[in-house]
Design brief:
By secondary structure, the protein is α/β, with parallel strands linked by helices. The protein has 23 helices and 22 strands. Strands 10-9-8-11-12-13-18-22-21 form a 9-stranded mixed β-sheet, sandwiched between helices. Strands 3-4-2-1-5-6-7 form a 7-stranded mixed β-sheet, with helices on both faces. The chain has a two-stranded parallel sheet with strand order 14-17. Helix 14 runs parallel beside helix 16 and helix 16 packs across helix 22.
């Protein structure tokens, strides 16, 4: 049927409304006088004409005829109720005026009855048209749609259901609601059942051929989201999320706009909340240097630090293109923020000395590092030059120029390292810790020197979601290309955290630390990487082993099977924040450490591979190589 026939012209709706008003008035008059037609028609023609005139003006003023009848809403019904209420009030006034002159118009009972009949008629015929349209047009379309359920019975869930079911081009039909609110279980909302989150619900949905669960609640807790995803995937049901309403195309929500659940959404935990109220005052007006500023951690550090209104943020990195992109982003997002891009290699002492001389930073956040385990295992001398020498250069310059705080970002791979990368970061930790203890062995020594010390602070992280080269982006690319997904070992596990979460920890530690601490994070439970891969395949709407294979390639050189559990209470001390702990580690004598590091850097400068690794193992006795050619250096004679 053409669109002209589907949509009634305005004049016809206007005429139908007037006919409804006239008929309602006639029925009201008959009911009032018990079907006595002689009394009914006494002066009724005059009353009818006046009523039609009054309602014509009200219909025109309220534009009640302008809406599309089949899309009548609650707002439209209230508009019609307002029209009949105003009309009834006018009838009362006219009746009172005529009664005082001895002329009969309409009785008060007739006016009251008419209000209910006219309102019911005007609203009722619209509801009938809406229902008939749904029966003859919409329901035929729904038969060919795939079935879906909506999680959430709030306004957001209700709106999602209405928009999807009423959108003619939609490929889905919402047939049920799912919610965890016990007071709603077993009830009906807009004709659809409300189910709980029990396993029987997901089995029932699967039996009813429901193919998709749509998450309408954007504030859903991570554990609840995981529960829904796990149960849904178990029964072959996909899970997607509704985008923000502002992103709906022309107020419509199509299946192409629904977003797949990202694995990052499932791995996220409750974001760490900063409890230290002094952070703003500690960073406001300060000159802050961020090394590795163009990297995933460094760039997020810059985004968060700018909100504390520092006097200047110096972005230091040697990667030109990422630095350029970060500068453009900061100009767009934070116009007017004091930001200076400084291209330089942290191993270049002359260049770094120039940086400190020109800008004299108050706080240094040291995020620059080589971090990829297999690459550093093949190039140990480069790992030492960048991770150890670079850290030493920055640390010594920080002391020379009176920097207040030096916060280094380390890794959980520095704990009992099995690879060159982790060992190089542990050596960096040892250097700055022992340097601080050497320069300021006690508070009395600080007072005697007459200057504020440079407080050296270390933070350790696990694997960061979405960072450059992390496992999740690689898995996504492998899934998009049809697989296979490559996992090194079926039992390998890792801890995960988000980039914003990691950066909040760095900022918190930077203010909390008093010098010499190594802060670690309670990272929750480890995740099996193969489970992660299989869940990502299912989230993409495919089946592992059927659509996308998972292939085990063997542990890479230096790779651990299990990461160390940093939150072990036997190895940590608590802080005022329940998720931030201080690692208890062995302290070193700085002169001894410094001499060994000097030899190590000299060997790395000459790019002597085995000699360099042997010197690393001498500095870090717990460094035992795993699945690496350097295992021969661990053999005890």
């Amino acid at each position: 049927m053409s669109e002209k026939l589907k949509t009634l012209p305005r004049w016809l709706i206007f005429a139908l409304d007037l006919a409804t008003v006239g008929f309602a008035l006639f029925v009201s008059q008959i009911l009032r006088f018990n079907f006595d037609l002689n009394i009914t028609f006494h002066n009724f023609t005059f009353a009818l004409a006046l009523a039609l005139g009054i309602n014509s003006i009200l219909f025109y003023a309220f534009k009640s005829f302008a809406g599309i009848v089949r899309y009548t809403t609650i707002r439209d019904t209230f508009r019609l109720l307002a029209i009949t209420a105003i009309a009834s009030a006018i009838y009362f006034i006219i009746g009172f005026v005529y009664y005082s002159k001895g002329v009969f118009f309409l009785s008060r009972a007739t006016i009251l009855i008419n209000f209910f009949i006219a309102s019911s008629g005007l609203i009722g015929y619209r509801m009938c048209v809406r229902h008939l349209y749904r029966v003859f047009f919409t329901d035929n379309l729904l038969k060919n749609r795939s079935k879906a359920a909506v999680y959430d019975t709030s306004e957001q869930g209700l709106l999602t259901k209405r928009v999807i079911n009423d959108y003619p081009q939609s490929q889905m039909q919402i047939v049920a609601f799912v919610d965890d609110k016990y007071n709603k279980h077993g009830k009906i909302m807009e004709g659809l059942p409300i189910y709980d989150l029990q396993e029987a619900t997901f089995k029932k949905l699967a039996d009813e051929n429901v193919k998709l669960i749509i998450i309408a609640n954007k504030e859903i807790q991570v554990d609840k989201l995981n529960l829904i995803v796990d149960k849904a995937l178990q029964y072959g049901i996909r899970v997607q999320q509704v985008p923000p309403i502002t992103q709906w195309l022309k107020g419509k929500l199509g299946s192409e706009q629904l977003k797949d659940i990202n694995i990052e959404d499932l791995l996220e935990r409750e974001v760490i909340q900063i409890h230290n109220e002094n952070i703003f005052y500690a960073l406001k007006g300060k000159k802050i240097l961020v090394t590795g500023a163009a990297g995933s951690i460094g760039s997020e550090m810059v985004r968060q630090l700018v909100k504390f209104k520092p006097a200047l943020i110096i972005l230091c990195d040697k990667a030109e293109t990422p630095m350029h992109e970060l500068c453009l982003e900061m100009q767009e997002r934070f116009p007017g923020a004091a930001i200076k891009a400084y291209m330089g290699d942290i191993c270049d002492r002359v260049r770094m000395d120039h940086l400190f001389e020109v800008y004299n930073p108050d706080i240094v956040f040291h995020a620059a590092a080589y971090k990829h385990v297999p690459l550093m295992e093949e190039n140990p001398s480069v790992a030492i030059l960048n991770n150890v020498l670079g850290t030493r250069v920055l640390a010594e310059l920080s002391v020379s120029y009176g920097t207040e705080k030096f916060v280094m970002i380390s890794t959980d791979k520095a704990v009992n390292p099995t690879n060159v990368m982790g060992a190089s970061k542990r050596i960096s930790e040892i250097f700055i810790q022992s340097l601080f203890k050497h320069l300021y062995p006690s508070e009395k020594e600080i007072v005697k020197n007459g200057q504020k010390p440079t407080m050296f602070i270390t933070t350790r992280f696990g694997n960061v979601l979405g960072s450059n080269g992390s496992v999740i982006p690689r898995f996504k690319k492998q899934i998009e290309s049809g697989g296979p997904i490559t996992v090194t070992h079926p039992e390998i596990t890792r801890y995960f955290m988000t980039i914003p979460e990691a950066c909040q920890l760095v900022i918190e530690a930077g203010v909390m630390g008093m010098g010499g601490e190594i802060f670690v994070f309670d990272m929750g439970k480890p995740v099996r990487v193969v489970d992660l891969a299989e869940k990502m395949i299912r989230l993409s709407g495919r089946q592992p082993g059927v659509d996308v294979d998972v292939v085990f390639t063997g542990l890479r050189p230096g790779e651990k099977l299990f990461e160390e559990l940093l939150s072990n209470k036997e190895n940590t001390l608590p802080t005022y924040h329940e998720k931030i702990l201080i690692a208890k580690v062995m302290e070193y004598d700085f002169p001894v450490v410094n001499e060994k590091i000097e030899k190590l850097i000299h060997s790395a400068t000459s790019h002597y591979t085995y000699e360099t690794v042997a010197l690393m193992k001498d500095l870090v006795p717990e460094f035992i190589s795993n699945n690496s050619s350097f295992e021969s250096l661990d053999v005890k004679v």
